[in-house]
Amino acid sequence: MLKLKKLYSLINRNATIKLVNEKRTDVYFCGTVKDIPDQYDLWKVVDLFELNSYEYEIMITEK
Question: How far does Cα 33 stand from its chain's mean position?
Fold first, then answer.
């Protein structure tokens, strides 16, 4: 499974990101790619939703 930090180079650093759990009930982070806390770097990406060119929702799960 893809780790969150691997996506950083693929997404514009100024894009708005929302990190959510698998059920989309909890929001872990909302902000720009460059501001994502390091604590989420090794979390696994479950799914990625592109809401528009500079806005994404990334479903993640703990290590």
Answer: 8
